[in-house]
């Protein structure tokens, strides 16, 4: 007689993280559709929504003890679509039609850098080379998507913002892609610890940021992106400083 087949069953709540990932994929795909149709504001909003879902699904999976290999692979594929493909598609259709050939090459470079970044991250998680949690090696893909859309944030927030040349936007796109695969170690907010005495100030600060995002969304996102670029520059300067001292 053959042995009975063991059936694996899940509680519906344990599938919630994967449902959030699927919803993020749908948001990314729909963002591409809106970008092609010329509804750039809605397209960017959907990419931001996908970023929020990306931040929730992993934490929810750990909270519910619902981590799985399939969920991790699904999350990685969603990240590539939402942060490696959708943002540059929207940018391409936004203002890069005058430099189609160069813009498409820049979009391909960014997408390839994103997929390499994700592949490197996945390999690091399965080996002993994983980062200690305090730093990212290279810009994470969600942050890269926000940075590459910075010109759109500024344009949406400032009615009289000047139109940037298409070539400059292409350079910006390639630069953000290269930052994702760079060896620069960037401080990770996830590992930050706050003393009990400073918790109240942190909560007040986060409330102010939240209100600013809801009230002046595009300006606030622009400021946050510029601050993150400053953090990248500071991290790169710290990396180069020991090398300069060794060569002295």
- SSE string, helices as H and strands as E: HHHHEHHHEHH
Main-sheet strand order equals 1-2
Number of separate strands:
2
Number of helices: 9
Mean pLDDT over all positions: 83
List descriptors:
248 residues; mainly alpha; Four Helix Bundle (Hemerythrin (Met), subunit A); two-stranded antiparallel ribbon; 9 helices; 2 strands; globular
Would you kindly provide a written description of the structure presented here, covering whatever features stand out?
The protein has 248 residues and is mostly helical. The protein has a single domain (12-189, 196-240), classed as Up-down Bundle (Four Helix Bundle (Hemerythrin (Met), subunit A)). 72% of the residues lie in helices and 2% in strands. It is built from nine helices and two strands; from the N terminus they run ααααβαααβαα. It has helices spanning 16-37, 40-63, 69-95, 100-125, 141-148, 150-157, 166-180, 199-215, 217-247, and strands at 135-137, 185-187. The chain has a two-stranded antiparallel ribbon. α8 crosses α9. The longest helix is centred in the C-terminal third of the chain and has 31 residues, at 217-247. It is globular and about 50 Å long. The mean pLDDT is 83.
Task: Write a brief structural summary.
By secondary structure, the chain is mostly helical. The chain has helices at 16-37, 40-63, 69-95, 100-125, 141-148, 150-157, 166-180, 199-215, 217-247; strands at residues 135-137, 185-187.
């Amino acid at each position: 007689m053959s042995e009975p087949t063991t059936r694996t069953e899940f509680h519906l709540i344990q599938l919630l993280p994967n449902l959030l990932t699927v919803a993020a994929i749908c948001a990314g795909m729909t963002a591409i559709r809106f970008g092609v149709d010329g509804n750039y504001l809605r397209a960017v909003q959907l990419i931001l929504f996908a970023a929020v879902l990306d931040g929730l699904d992993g934490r929810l999976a750990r909270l519910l003890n619902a981590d799985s290999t399939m969920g991790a692979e699904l999350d990685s594929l969603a990240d590539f679509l939402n942060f490696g493909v959708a943002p540059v598609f929207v940018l391409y259709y936004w203002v890069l039609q005058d430099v189609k050939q160069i813009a498409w090459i820049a979009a391909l470079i960014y997408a390839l850098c994103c997929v390499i970044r994700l592949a490197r991250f996945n390999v690091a998680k399965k080996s002993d080379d994983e980062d200690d949690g305090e730093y990212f090696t290279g810009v994470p893909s969600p942050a890269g998507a926000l940075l590459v859309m910075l010109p759109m944030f500024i344009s949406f927030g400032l009615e009289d913002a000047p139109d940037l040349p298409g070539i400059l936007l292409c350079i910006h796109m390639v630069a953000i892609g290269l930052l994702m695969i760079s060896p620069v170690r960037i401080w990770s907010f996830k590992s930050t610890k706050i003393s009990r005495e400073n918790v109240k100030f942190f909560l007040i600060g986060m409330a102010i940021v939240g209100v600013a995002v809801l009230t002046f969304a595009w300006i606030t996102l622009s400021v946050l992106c510029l601050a993150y670029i400053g953090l990248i520059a500071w991290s790169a300067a710290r990396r180069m400083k020991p090398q300069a001292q060794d060569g002295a």
